[in-house]
Known about the structure:
The chain is an alpha/beta fold. It has a domain of about 170 residues: 3-Layer(aba) Sandwich (Rossmann fold). Helices cover about 30% and strands about 30% of the residues. Strands 4-3-2-5-6-12-11 form a 7-stranded mixed beta sheet, with helices on both faces. α3 packs across α4. The mean pLDDT is about 95.
Amino acid sequence: MKKTGNKLLSSANFYDDVSEFYEKMIDFEKNLQLRVKAYKNIFERVGPAADLGCGVGLDSIALAMNGHDVTAFDISPKMIIKTKKNAAKFGLTIKTEVSPLESIPAAYKNNFLNVVCVGNTIAHLNDSQLKKTLKKIYGLLKPGGKLFLHILNYETIRKQNKRINNIAVRDGVTIIRFYDVFEQHLNFNILSFKVEEPKNFRLVTTRHYPHTKNEIRLLLKFAGFNRIKFSKNFDGENFNLLDSKDMFITATK
Length: 253
């Protein structure tokens, strides 16, 4: 493992860099089963679906397993490659596009019955980009289409100064996700090293924007969405601003 410094990376470069161990970090198999079950309940209608910020294809594969015709989008070319390879392992065909979320091609307008954007993807977007992206998502959906969105609860993270997001050990590699907290943004870091070689580490950093519940609600309404609901997990349990780690949002066009 090569030692690297703490240079701030763009989202695309950041995820290109971590793509080789990302599946291990997120515990792919365990979370795939969780999502397959959850999406059966979240999306009542099966049809064309988009996975925005698809990463290694976890949500795309879960949707495809439930019968959806999936198109996966990501800003990272290496993540798109991972999505294709993982879909092939399950005998699934998933269409893919390398694209920033706010610039998804106009050819996809009114194309999707369902859209997912989970894994804290929108935290990579500044206020202007988020506004454009939610408007773009509204345009991607068919009338009556449903959005399922996720972001960490940054209000709690900032208030309690929760710098450590997660620590995992996978196949002899320690992976630590943590934050540097600033007034207007956070730096998101992934530190990884072999258990027996902690001095030979890799550290990569990118920027996160701590969008709040109220901000997201307002931007969803501005984009045209209605029936907006906030929850703390995939099961739809009530979101609590004070102690929920995650914020999940459903909204309808």
